[in-house]
Amino acid sequence: MGKLWMIFVASISILLHFSAILSPDTPTDRLVLVLLDDFAIKSSHSLYFNSLKSRGFDLDFKLTDDPKIALQRYGQYLYDALILFCPSVERFGGSIDLAATINFVDSGHDLIIAADANASDLIREVSTECGVDFDEDPSAMVIDHTSYTVSETEGDHTLIASDDFIKSDVILGSKKIEAPVHFQGIGHSSNPANSLVLKVLSASPSAYSANPKSKLSTPPSLTGSAISLVSIVQARNNARVLITGSLSMFSNRFVRSGVQKAGSQTRHEKAGNEQFLTELSRWAFHERGHLKAVNVKHHKVGETDEPALYRIKDELEYSVEIYEWSGTSWEPYVADDVQVQFYMMSPYVLKTLSNDKKGLYFTSFKVPDVYGVFQFKVEYQKLGYTSLSLSKQISVRPYRHNEYERFIPAAYPYYGAAFSMMAGFFIFSFVDCSIQQVDCSIPSMETADCWIRNF
């Protein structure tokens, strides 16, 4: 009996957890699995972890070789997000592997990957599946002889001070990051044709990827601004992935240390790592840039009820409410580039929606003179924001036989021709009947003329 009671309580708790995860009203990730190579990382990177905890995240720390770790149970995911701070792992314990990690992202969950010069093939494969390719040379690191961090020892210029950030307030926040960011690790590249991958922190034009302990014998495969130091991925299912080749940039040492970029006279007492990584984690965990659309409505002008179908040339109104998650509540989303399509095989109507600055977007238009099955479609994609894909189907019918206009304007010339002929006939008849008639039976000159005329 006691065992049955424990199973019942466990089942209820799991259901409550899953209902919270799947709730559309709380998009922010809350339960995060953190996989580590060594528990020492938990203390050496404590500032970053404490930043997440202070924002309400529940971090579950596990070693990568733990035989009990799992991402899902009974077909349901146990975590909202995954952090891989285990660059040298060759194989995960428990039921986690490459396929399980990719399926986790494919299910709409979020992922953070931090590699370094010791990145294993497993970490490289996970990154490749997400659209990012680390340098194939296992001994290569990013080297920059002009944008390195000035220190007492000259070093090999692998400790880089980078400030080439992406220009996006929704990803890095509205407050400018004044200090450069410390980076020491491996670079990666992405396919320029892949619009899902964005470079958040890029290397300078003078950087290259090579082994810092040996001389260059061949040109490096990665050079200049093509090297990405930190990249993000927003999948089509709105899952978000953060990938970097430097685990050290999350460390307390890099966060607390000062920074002076080579060639600059300005020395910052604190590097920009803390602000950069905090703002980036806000985006990665959907605390910013997450949109939702509600109350999609359409109806005829002057009415409020949604009809079952429209008639060609009807005047209609379309509206939708769009909100953005601020980390604690839903706030009205304000933009001037949201469009709606009235679509059947191709858009017959494309209208930009007006908004009232309170989240309501609306427009009105005339149904085209084409009948069939149409869709109201909103396909909204903007840098850094989750995509919106709204679709609502409606039928459009032609005029019924008794709904056509009594007089068609295009036929007015024909109407005029018909009525003018009738008027001419009436006038001719009236004139003809008004002429004095001559009696042709009486012989006279007029009678002769009458015979000739009648002949």
What does this structure look like?
With 455 residues, the protein is of the alpha+beta class. The chain has helices at residues 2-22, 40-44, 46-54, 98-106, 121-129, 169-172, 252-256, 273-284, 412-434, 445-454, and strands at residues 31-36, 58-63, 72-73, 76-77, 81-85, 110-114, 132-134, 141-143, 160-162, 164-165, 181-183, 188-190, 197-202, 208-210, 228-234, 240-244, 290-300, 309-311, 315-325, 330-332, 339-344, 346-352, 354-355, 360-366, 372-380, 388-397. Strands 2-1-5-6-16-15-13-10 form an 8-stranded mixed beta sheet, covered by helices on one side. Strands 17, 19, 20, 23 and 24 form a 5-stranded antiparallel beta sheet that branches. It has a 5-stranded mixed beta sheet with strand order 18-26-25-21-22, with no helix packed on it. α3 (46-54) packs across α8 (273-284). The longest helix has 23 residues, at 412-434. Residues 3-23 have low confidence and may be disordered.
Strand content: 25-35%
Task: List the uncertain runs.
Answer: 3-23
The total of helices stands at 10
Give the overall pLDDT as a whole number: 86
Shape: elongated
Report the structural category: alpha+beta
Straight-line N-to-C gap? 127 Å
Radius of gyration: 37 Å
- What is the topology, as strand order, of the major beta sheet? 2-1-5-6-16-15-13-10
Number of strands: 26
Largest sheet: 8 strands, mixed
Name the helicity range.
Answer: 10-25%
